[in-house]
């Protein structure tokens, strides 16, 4: 069975979240040998119904106010906040984790499909004047999930929501971001126009296939990276930094792999040179760099049919790599990806849960990391009008 691992970063809910009660001011803080104790005094006033952030002293300096709590089930839920989280049907488990991080319940929404395949959406609670966040990756079936997102946006707009943010952990059609041949469409721009025209005020996306996709939207786009979650996990493994080499499975991913290698103890970089003869078909030609006796970490933004990364792994083994790890944010896993990934080429395949992984798509080498805390923190900062530039998730220093 695949293992589910939660990233240690941003793992604890924040007391400034709507689900926490901070009705009294923390003052006169002093540090005890093992903990921080505060004296509770006068009530804390708030004009907008949302408790402001409460700084704490940690190691003699102010921190962001992150407290450890036993479990998210113990978090009280508030109903007076103007923040609303709704989930589509594409990845409800991730949406629930995000809501739990924020100390909220998912908003009540009715989504059904008629006999002819048409989608019906009705909000089951008022969102008038609220900041609404709709969590819906446009993963397979891409067209149905995209249409569902558009109808959810329209329902919120017609219900007089103040702001509507489309939270798209995986942005489908992102690979169709340019014309490589004559008479081709640029579907990424078309989808961006559809989301904008439906009524979205903002988009929150994770690991877009190419950065220029942000320019296709005529509304603000907050782009966060899921790969630092993978970096946290790799840092917890007992791999000697001198044995590591980061490998880009194609020339187009060199900037991503170089930034990843820089964060991973400034590991050396290798590049797999391939020639693509058709969509979802790849042929490996050559390897640039030395991997002999090394632990090779292959990095990509998504794994679709796994043809590119599997052929790259074969070449790495031929060139003398000791072990090969595959790391990717988005696990599309179109057939025959599972057969290729579970064939013994990889020591471990590390992905995130931006796309739900069905039971029939799991295999022993698969490890799934959660990006719920990353997205939850970003949602809160957008709602609270704070910068989303929270290291290390806002940038990979890709240039």
Describe the SSE topology:
Layout (H helix, E strand, L loop, with lengths): L2 E4 L17 E8 L4 E8 L13 E2 L2 E2 L20 E5 L4 H11 L6 E5 L5 E5 L7 E5 L6 H17 L4 E6 L18 H12 L3 E5 L14 E4 L2 H9 L8 E5 L5 H10 L5 E10 L2 E8 L6 E9 L3 H12 L4 E9 L5 H5 L6 E5 L13 E5 L1 H12 L16
Parallel strand pairs: 1-19, 6-9, 9-10, 10-11, 11-12, 13-14, 13-16, 16-17, 17-18, 18-19
Antiparallel strand pairs: 2-3, 4-5, 7-8, 14-15
Helix pairs in contact: 1-8, 2-3
Report what the structure shows.
The chain is of the alpha/beta class. It is built from eight helices and 19 strands. An eight-stranded mixed β-sheet has the order 1-19-18-17-16-13-14-15, with helices on both faces. It has a five-stranded parallel β-sheet with strand order 6-9-10-11-12, with helices on both faces. 40% of the residues are buried.
Please provide a brief summary of the model.
With 399 residues, this protein is α/β, with parallel strands linked by helices. It has eight helices and 19 strands. It has helices at residues 92-102, 142-158, 187-198, 227-235, 254-263, 307-318, 337-341, 372-383; strands at residues 3-6, 24-31, 36-43, 57-58, 61-62, 83-87, 109-113, 119-123, 131-135, 163-168, 202-206, 221-224, 244-248, 269-278, 281-288, 295-303, 323-331, 348-352, 366-370.
